[in-house]
Amino acid sequence: MSQDPAIVWFRDDLRLADHPALARAAATGAPVICLYIREEPAQGQRPLGAAARWWLAGSLRALDGALRGMGQRLVLRSGAASDVIPAVIAASGARTVLWNRRYDAGGIAVDTAIKADLAARGIAVASLPGNLLREPWEVKSGAGDPMKVFTPFWRAHQRLGDIREPLRRPTALTPFSGALASEDLSSWDLEPTKPNWASGFPGTWTPGEAGAQTALAAFLAESLGGYADNRDRPDRPSTSRLSPHLRFGEISPVQIWHQAHMAAGLDGGRDLAKFLAEIGWREFAYHLLFHWPDLSERSFQTRFDQFPWRSDTAALTAWQRGRTGYPLVDAGMRQLWQTGWMHNRVRMVVASFLVKHLLIDWRAGERWFWDTLVDADVANNPASWQWVAGSGADAAPYFRIFNPVLQGEKFDPRGDYVRRWVPELAALPRDAIHAPWKASEPVLTRAGIRLGETYPHPVVDHDAARGRALAALAEIRDVSAA
């Protein structure tokens, strides 16, 4: 049995169970060094947004605590991974380096270069599949090509057979007995202080593997039944809220897949199918990112390169601050700011509003979400924005323009969601809550609302904005036809 240490490089997989790289290292019986690197972004890698940095701090603390319960610890280093890993090898005598794969072009380039360098030094190195149900290159069209439409992608994905069983958490990890320096997490300044704009986050979230399992168990017990009908209701606790846990790999999609099947029974019906299709969309987003790596920068449909986007700083700021005058949009943007998360139905509405009502480039919205979402994901975020914008793969057609008033009346019928996040509207009756500008003066006065003072007038008229958006679409159609 080799006593040369093995390094397990943790990245977006901050868990102990169903962790292929950790499981392989533990199986050797050799000392294990659990390493996390705060990487200096290389070309093509995106620095974490502010909200994601907050989550990362909590997740790293949770992982270190779990490791210490096993007589281990998490070694923290910062710098270029290509420099840090050889330095840890030199200090420890490690002869093996293991990690779970990532799929963005910048990350792949870094990993490929490190692999080649380590192999040349005689170090055993392996990357393993640990963060998706299947690898992005495994799902293909009948012609062997990458797939661009979700429904046939998901069908092909399911036809490939059973999903592997999740790996158990190692029962023991042999610690490295030598001296190995680790940086202090607090020195990384991941969490805001002055001002502490994340003050509402701790009461909303529990980062870490234990928090992920608690969230999944609660969802399966309380909300999986009826999920297909209730998932679009932001006024109800009807979604899993697992997205940030998945983003940081505190739980794997394989674990979710099998636990959901166990909870639903042999025939889970449409609720299970709809929930698993959401995991499928994440798979599809990574499939797109792997094959089209500039997903966050360029419109998938090149005709949108000619789209007449508007530069409107005042409108963008109103959207970011939840001051558009459309209550459902404002509720979503304020929920995002206060909790680092937004209900999925409302995400579609606010994204559609930015792109189609305001004609502001989808990339501006994608960047705002990247900075403010705790679940900001390198594949999901741009793929979803392009879907709403109409510029992406299998996108919603551009002429599908969400009416935020009708969306509110349908999915927040009592106005409970709006009242929670836009409290200045709380006293409005339900028939006025989603369009306060249509309410009579007596109704507004009784609710303590002065439009233009306590709550803004709409920044744009829906019908006029819709007409403007369709005219803009006609412009790029004409360009495409020319």
Task: Provide the number of structural domains.
Answer: 3
How helical, in percent, are the residues? 40-55%
Secondary structural class: alpha/beta
Low-confidence stretches: none
The CATH homology group name of the largest domain: DNA Cyclobutane Dipyrimidine Photolyase, subunit A, domain 3
Relative strand content? 5-15%
As a whole number of angstroms, the C-alpha radius of gyration is: 24 Å
Distance between the termini: 70 Å
Description:
With 482 residues, the protein is of the alpha/beta class. The protein has three domains: 6-130, HUPs (Rossmann fold), CATH 3.40.50.620; 132-163 and 210-291, Alpha Horseshoe (Serine Threonine Protein Phosphatase 5, Tetratricopeptide repeat); 302-477, DNA Cyclobutane Dipyrimidine Photolyase, subunit A, domain 3. It is built from 19 helices and five strands. It has helices at residues 20-28, 50-68, 81-92, 105-120, 150-159, 209-222, 227-230, 243-247, 253-264, 269-291, 313-321, 327-339, 344-357, 362-372, 380-389, 404-411, 416-421, 441-446, 462-481; strands at 6-10, 32-39, 74-79, 96-100, 124-128. The chain has a five-stranded parallel β-sheet, with helices on both faces. The mean pLDDT is 95.
